[in-house]
Amino acid sequence: MSILQFDQHVDRSHTQSIRWDKYGPDVIPLWVADMDFRPPEAVIQALTKRVEHGVFGYTYASQELKEVIVDYIHRMYHWKISPEWIAFLPSVVTGLHLSVRMLTQPGDHILIPHPAYHHFKDAVLGAIRDYSIYEMALHQGRYILDMAQLESLVRPQTKLLMLCNPHNPGGTVFTKEELLAIGEFAKAHQLMICSDEIHADLILDEGLQHHPIGSIGQGIENRSFSLMSLNKAYNFPGIGLSWVICQNPEIQKKLMQDVHTLIPNPNLFAYDVTQAAMEHGQEWHASLIAYLRKNRDTVHARINAIPGLSMAHLQATYLAWIDSSAMGWDNPFEAFLNAGVALSPGSQFGDQQFVRLNFGTTSKLLNLALGRIEKIYQQ
Question: Domain extents for the chain?
Answer without folding.
Answer: 3-41+282-378, 55-279
